[in-house]
């Protein structure tokens, strides 16, 4: 009887085979849902760069080109991470295996902060998109943002059922954006009045160097495919790698293409820093398409995409806390209450934690996403830096000298971006929060007995 039992167990454990059209549908749902966050960042990253340039449109395209260049570098690192960790885990798994389990908590702390900021900035930007379409709602900016926050948090109660819907929202935004771009470059409705160039008060090179780190909010979400592939239990390691890398390639093509095209159109149509009740991306769409249905569709799809990005973090963030809370068989780092889930597998108390934290930062920023952008590209860049240094160490162990240099130079570029953002002062709060959370989790992990598999916590979070 023992051999039969062993064979049955092996049969159950093996992932089901997914072929043909089903695999294509799965990739569509997975890829376009996962890239909702970085694609939605287009809605505020270009404007953030222009504000940092003090409205100098002539320097906007070089600045965003530099941003995309750095996104390519970061994406290349996660391409390597997906190959090495096909079951998920991302920078946390890389740090734990390269430097020891204690280093796992630095990227984990960074992700906790990043999820809160993603929710806050996405909700605030969605409220701004609605206000740009209906200016009469401007006095209600904070209540509107908090209402949207509650709606998204409430939908999170029903678990991951909305993933295909998120994919549809991402595709809809991309298609509407392409229509706006075609019309804007061929037959624009109007042009703006912003000057092509302004005096930045310093050299053009220095102005670009100081401005581009603010727009690196565009890179947030790049890490998502390397952790989200843990959800693909129906695939083997080879196909998980293909899904992860395919998603990274799609992310780079769509985010890079949309960003550079919208930036070029802003320069062409002289669309500068927007008024208090609008956004630059809304002004670009209005100038390109006029006040008709296409402009309305653009604002609607952008706001829905931003809400989808917030919802994605509302699932990933509480999922991470749930994994850290452990199970009956595996003692956790956090209190067990954070791991309690409803019948949809949603850890509701962890959702409440993220809801409260996001509400605080939305109110503190008066519902203005551009106030939050300054804090955004700090915590996640800590995770990027740890991942790059870890991959450089792996390459050195394996005597892959070219990869050592590539990862090392990328780490220097990421460290420089992080340093420039920190020099602005207030972003130090994001770094302080990251270090505080990482230290607190490490202390609790030590008291809980130092479980040996802590570096796999991000993968467990996605599987749960």
Describe it.
This protein has 464 residues and is an all-alpha fold. 71% of the residues lie in helices and 0% in strands. The protein is built from 19 helices and no strands. The protein has helices at 2-13, 20-34, 36-40, 42-52, 60-84, 90-99, 105-133, 141-156, 163-186, 204-211, 224-228, 237-268, 280-289, 293-325, 348-364, 369-397, 401-422, 428-447, 457-463. Mean pLDDT is 84; it is low at 1-16.
Please describe the structure with a list of short key phrases separated by commas or semicolons:
disordered N terminus, single chain, 464 residues, mainly alpha
Secondary-structure content class: mainly alpha
Shape summary: globular
What ranges have pLDDT less than 50 throughout 5 or more consecutive residues? 1-16
Topology order in helix (H) and strand (E) letters? HHHHHHHHHHHHHHHHHHH
Major β-sheet profile = none
Please give the count of helices: 19
Quote the distance from N terminus to C terminus. 33 Å
- For the secondary structure, the number of strands is 0
What Rg do the Cα atoms give?
22 Å
Strand percentage, roughly? under 5%
Nearest-integer average pLDDT: 84
The helical percent reads: over 70%
């Amino acid at each position: 009887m023992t051999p039969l039992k062993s064979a049955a167990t092996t049969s159950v454990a093996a992932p089901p085979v997914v072929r043909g059209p089903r695999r294509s549908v799965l990739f569509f749902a997975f890829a376009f849902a996962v890239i909702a966050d970085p694609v939605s960042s287009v809605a505020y990253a270009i404007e953030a760069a222009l504000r940092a340039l003090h409205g100098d449109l002539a320097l906007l395209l070089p600045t965003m080109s530099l941003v995309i260049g750095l996104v390519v570098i970061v994406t290349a690192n996660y391409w390597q991470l997906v190959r090495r960790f096909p079951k998920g885990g991302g920078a946390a798994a890389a740090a734990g295996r390269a430097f020891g389990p204690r280093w796992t908590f630095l990227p984990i702390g960074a992700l906790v902060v990043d999820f809160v900021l993603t929710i806050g900035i996405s909700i605030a930007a969605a409220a701004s998109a609605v206000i740009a379409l209906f200016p009469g709602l401007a006095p209600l900016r904070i209540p509107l943002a908090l209402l949207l926050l509650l709606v998204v948090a409430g939908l999170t109660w029903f678990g991951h059922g909305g993933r295909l819907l998120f994919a549809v929202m991402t595709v809809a935004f991309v298609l509407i954006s392409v229509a706006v771009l075609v019309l804007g470059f061929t037959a624009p409705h109007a042009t703006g009045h912003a000057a092509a160039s302004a005096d930045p008060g310093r050299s053009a090179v220095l102005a670009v160097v100081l401005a581009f780190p603010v727009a690196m909010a565009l890179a947030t979400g790049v890490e998502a495919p390397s952790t989200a592939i843990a959800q693909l239990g129906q695939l083997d390691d080879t196909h998980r790698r293909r899904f992860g890398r395919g998603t990274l390639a799609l992310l780079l093509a769509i985010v890079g293409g949309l960003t550079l095209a919208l930036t070029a159109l802003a320069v062409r149509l002289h669309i500068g820093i927007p008024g208090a009740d609008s956004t630059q991306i809304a002004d670009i769409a209005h100038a390109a398409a006029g006040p008709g249905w296409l402009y309305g569709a653009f604002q609607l799809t952008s706001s829905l995409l931003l809400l989808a990005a917030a919802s994605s973090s509302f699932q990933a963030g509480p999922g991470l806390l749930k994994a850290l809370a452990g199970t009956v068989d595996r003692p956790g780092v956090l209190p067990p209450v954070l791991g309690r889930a409803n019948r949809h597998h949603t850890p509701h108390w962890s959702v409440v934690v993220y809801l409260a934290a996001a509400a605080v930062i939305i109110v503190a920023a008066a519902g203005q996403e551009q106030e939050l952008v300054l804090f955004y590209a700090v915590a996640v860049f800590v995770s990027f830096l740890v991942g790059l240094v870890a991959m450089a160490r792996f390459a050195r162990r394996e005597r892959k000298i070219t990869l050592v240099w590539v990862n090392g130079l990328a780490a220097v570029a990421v460290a420089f971006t992080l340093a420039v953002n920190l020099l602005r002062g207030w972003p130090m709060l994001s770094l302080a929060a990251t270090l505080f959370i990482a230290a607190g989790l490490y202390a609790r992990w030590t008291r809980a007995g130092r479980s040996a598999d802590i570096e796999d916590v991000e993968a467990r979070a996605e599987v749960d």
